[in-house]
Write a structure and sequence with these properties.
The chain is an alpha/beta fold. It folds into two domains: about 80 residues, 2-Layer Sandwich (Alpha-Beta Plaits); about 190 residues, Rossmann fold (3-Layer(aba) Sandwich), CATH 3.40.50.150. Helices cover about 30% and strands about 30% of the residues. The protein has a seven-stranded mixed sheet with strand order 10-9-8-11-12-14-13, with helices on both faces. It has a four-stranded antiparallel sheet with strand order 2-3-1-4. Helix 5 runs parallel beside helix 6.
Length: about 280
């Protein structure tokens, strides 16, 4: 087994995991924080490491990572067992988020959400996901038709369905995320109302939705906002996350109306607006 250490901004972790997974990486671990981001450990089998393209370090830099030191060969370990042990249940009111291998008691009247993350983003551990879960619990209404843009594990769309949304159309450009989100929909019993497509916002059906959720990153969101608003019903809600507090000015300038809801956790920020072109 070979270990590669990369310094990157937290907002680039998701892309690095997706791209390096395509190059054969078999495991990832956010080992520590570095100024100003995190240290991402990436693990390759000897065969996958030998098969890396000659310019792989250049590709990594294009995806937001900086190689730290030199790749090191390490003793084999049971990475799956260690990874599973690191994924512990988390409570984000009113949701109790857990993996399928955790079957302990659910606290009180919490809504049980089962997420097996594999290599997708969205377990409830990241601040941006928690911000969205807390917001949608307050703002998504029974019967809403929901979009989950950049769905990752599917956690946000699944949570919306579990609190009463009528349907969710989700999409992600990563084929692995699409498969993972569909599997998680089955684990939560919402596969009949949760549709997942591979691609970007161009795969959205030609219909209108009551709520659009997008937890991605600033640049992707700024590019996507017009397309998402075009599919939002009058009075509908657009909820954005994956944003830093320092992104507020740029994002607010791109939005057509003032926020109806904002929240922060640490350096992260979520903002929700209402489509004011008509009545809901």
């Amino acid at each position: 087994m070979f270990r590669v250490c990369l310094a990157c901004d937290e907002t680039d972790v998701e892309r690095l995991v997706a791209e390096l997974g395509e190059l054969g990486a078999e495991g990832f671990h956010e080992a520590s924080t570095v100024d100003p981001g995190v240290c991402l450990e990436v693990f390759f089998s000897p065969h996958a490491f030998e098969a890396l393209p000659d310019d792989w370090a250049v590709l990594v830099s294009q995806w937001g990572g900086t190689l730290q030191g030199v790749p090191a060969e390490i003793a084999d370990r049971n990475w799956n067992a260690e990874w599973e042990a690191s994924i512990t249940p988390i409570h984000v009111a009113p949701f109790h988020v857990r993996a399928s291998w955790h079957d302990g008691p659910i606290p009180g009247d919490a809504i049980d959400i089962i997420i097996d993350p594999k290599m997708s983003f969205g377990t409830g551990y990241h601040e941006t996901t928690r911000l969205m879960l807390r917001a949608l619990a307050k703002l998504v209404a029974t019967g809403d038709r929901v979009v989950d843009a950049g769905t990752g594990t599917g956690i946000l769309g699944i949570a919306a369905l579990r609190i009463g949304a009528a349907s969710c159309f989700a999409f992600d450009f990563d084929a692995l995320c699409v498969v993972n989100a569909r599997e998680n929909a089955v684990l939560n019993g919402v596969e009949d109302t949760f549709v997942v497509a591979e691609g970007d916002e161009r795969v959205l059906p030609d219909e209108m939705f009551d709520v659009v959720l997008a937890n991605i990153n600033r640049e992707a969101l700024l590019a996507m906002i017009p397309s998402l608003l075009a599919r939002l019903s009058p009075g509908g809600l657009l909820g954005l996350s994956g944003l830093l507090v320092s992104d507020k000015s740029a994002v607010r300038a791109a939005l057509p109306s003032t926020s109806i809801y904002e929240d922060t956790e640490g350096e992260w920020w979520t903002v929700w607006i209402r489509n004011e072109t008509g009545d809901h």
